[in-house]
Write a structure and sequence with these properties.
Elements lengths: L7 E2 L3 E5 L3 E6 L9 E5 L2 E8 L4 E8 L4 E10 L4 E7 L20 E3 L18 H8 L5 H4 L20
Parallel strand pairs: 1-6, 2-9
Antiparallel strand pairs: 2-3, 3-8, 4-5, 5-6, 7-8
């Protein structure tokens, strides 16, 4: 297939927010090195080839509100690329959506595992941007993220069960 017939697709994405941060996870396996991530204060552009079939994926949208484009942090894994950006106007009100457009984006879902509502009572006390990135795994060796687990450690499921009476 040549470049003129290549079909561009939206990659599946999830997003979450904190009082001062927006987190976007782009789900594309085996992203090739030639990926492009361009962030302006009001816009995100992403382009890559990836997956088993080396398909072309692209995102181009305007944010609901402005972000600090210089704050971009990327955390790649073999299955996804997570982007974290600071909001220009941190705090409340939280954004009702990621994109400026009110239209439903079929490729975008909420990442409930990373979501924090503005009325959550368990807001992180040490909530700095760098601390959040460490918790998400940015710059932390995989062994440290897994807590030094190895296959030889005994698991509580490995214990013998007592006989039934």
């Amino acid at each position: 297939m040549d470049a003129s017939t290549t079909r561009v697709q939206h990659p599946p994405c999830k997003w979450a927010q904190r009082a001062d941060t927006v987190i976007i996870t782009i789900n594309v396996e085996d992203i090739e090195k030639e990926q492009r991530v361009e962030v302006e204060d009001n816009r995100l552009f992403f382009h890559c080839k990836g997956g088993h079939e080396h398909l072309v994926y692209e995102l181009d949208f305007k944010f609901f509100k402005e972000v600090d484009s210089k704050s971009l942090r990327k955390m790649p894994t073999g299955r996804e690329l997570t982007l974290a950006l600071k909001k220009k106007e941190p705090g409340t009100p939280f954004w009702p959506r990621l994109c400026e457009s009110k239209d439903k984006q079929h490729w975008l879902k909420v990442d409930f595992s990373r979501w924090k509502d503005e009325d959550d009572s368990d807001v992180e006390e040490d909530g700095s941007f760098e601390d959040m990135m460490k918790k998400m795994g940015g710059g932390v060796p995989q062994e440290e993220m897994l807590g030094g687990l190895d296959d030889e450690q005994e698991d509580s499921d490995d214990e013998e069960l007592p006989d039934l009476e």
